[in-house]
Design goal:
This is ABC transporter related protein. It comes from Marivirga tractuosa (strain ATCC 23168 / DSM 4126 / NBRC 15989 / NCIMB 1408 / VKM B-1430 / H-43). Belongs to the ABC transporter superfamily. Pfam families: ABC_tran (PF00005). Keywords: ATP-binding, Nucleotide-binding, Transport. There is one protein chain. The protein is an alpha/beta fold. It has 2 domains: 215 residues, Rossmann fold (3-Layer(aba) Sandwich); 50 residues. Helix content is 34%, strand content 28%. The strands form 3 sheets. It has a 6-stranded mixed sheet with strand order 6-7-8-3-9-10, with helices on both faces. Strands 2-1-4-5 form a 4-stranded antiparallel sheet, covered by helices on one side. Strand 1 and strand 2 form a beta hairpin. It is globular, with a radius of gyration of 22 Å. The relative contact order is 0.14. The C terminus is likely disordered. The structure holds adenosine-5'-diphosphate (ADP). The site of adenosine-5'-diphosphate has 12 residues, from helix 1.
């Protein structure tokens, strides 16, 4: 699916503008929307899935304006919201079967086949008889993906999927998404976790205070910070001084000193050397946006 977003702005009735003039083009594969809490990611995702309307701007999906073709667009979208919840009395397979009744016209026999196929795809076939609300957090999230996939969407929108998951579940979830993105489904994933993006997405945007701070590839974002990441070993006094002045990304205590990595336009200390940048560094760089450098 090709998605063209132009001048998208959302001002809530209380006057707060959560999305400001966002322009993006999203193609097939996996697209990551990175940003801190409050950046406007959920607001953006809700507009994308037609759950709320923008104040101004437009979104075209395969050339169709989503406001003019709301019903048609909805049949092509699978959505996993951040606060996805379950009906407590349903078993795992029953929950998915219920979702299938709501969003497909499949007959009972076809539904059962489809449900087990999806449970297998997300690694839940073994627990198909377990009550959905008794599943672990990671399993619930995977069941959420299965329900979002049931109508065979062309676009899958997933809001903060890995928050609160342990590392093993996080990796498992990312792998399921990577597999899906091979299958002609556009996946848009929002997250504040840098690792979700660096391990799965070739295209991304960073949202900060409702505005696009960066768009491109994760590698492109990393290149923007090259030359601004420094490493230096400091004593307590130097460290206390430097952390007041600069964005410190990491600190490791070594032999009574601090090995510090930080973001700075120019060398912050006579002993500082350039460090190899990664996406975490770039994220801090774009979030702080305090270096006075033109960012895009
Ligand atoms: P994120 O998903 O990146 O955390 P959100 O889209 O949830 O960001 O929120 C962006 C900003 O918009 C926040 O400051 C939030 O308080 C505000 N916001 C979200 N929904 C509403 C609403 N319905 N009314 C007013 N403000 C809102």
């Amino acid at each position: 699916m090709n998605i063209q977003i132009t001048g998208l702005t959302k001002t809530y009735p209380n006057g707060y503008t959560a999305i400001k003039d966002v322009n993006l083009e999203i193609g097939s594969g996996m697209f990551g929307l990175l940003g801190p809490n409050g950046a406007g990611k959920s607001s953006f995702m809700r507009i994308l899935v037609t759950a709320q309307q923008a104040t101004s701007g437009s979104i075209l999906m395969d050339g169709m304006d989503i406001n003019e073709h709301r019903q048609k667009i909805r049949t092509r979208i699978g959505y996993l919201p951040q606060d996805f919840t379950f009906f407590s009395k349903l078993k795992t397979w029953e929950f998915l079967d219920y979702a299938a009744q709501l969003s497909t016209s499949l007959k009972k026999k076809e539904r059962i086949i489809k449900v087990d196929q999806l449970l297998d795809q997300v690694g839940l076939l073994d627990v198909r008889e377990r009550l959905a609300n008794k599943l672990s957090g990671g399993m619930k999230r995977r069941l959420g993906i299965a329900q979002a996939l049931i109508g065979e969407p062309k676009l899958l929108v997933i809001d903060e999927p890995t928050t609160g998951l342990d590392p093993e579940e996080r990796i498992r979830f990312r792998n399921i998404l990577s597999d899906l993105s091979q299958k002609d489904v556009t996946i848009i994933l929002s997250t504040h976790i840098v690792g979700d993006i660096s391990s799965t997405c070739h295209n991304m945007a960073m949202l900060n205070k409702g505005e696009v701070a960066f768009k491109g590839s994760p590698e492109g974002m990393i290149e923007k910070v090259r030359g601004h990441v420094w490493q230096v070993n400091l004593n307590d006094e130097e460290f206390n001084k430097i952390k007041m002045e600069y964005s410190v990304v990491s600190t490791i205590p070594i032999d009574g000193k601090w090995e510090v990595q930080l973001i700075a336009e120019n060398s912050p200390h006579p002993n500082a050397t350039h460090a190899n940048p990664n996406l975490e560094h770039a994220y801090v760089y774009f979030m702080e946006n305090q270096l006075g450098i033109s960012l895009i």
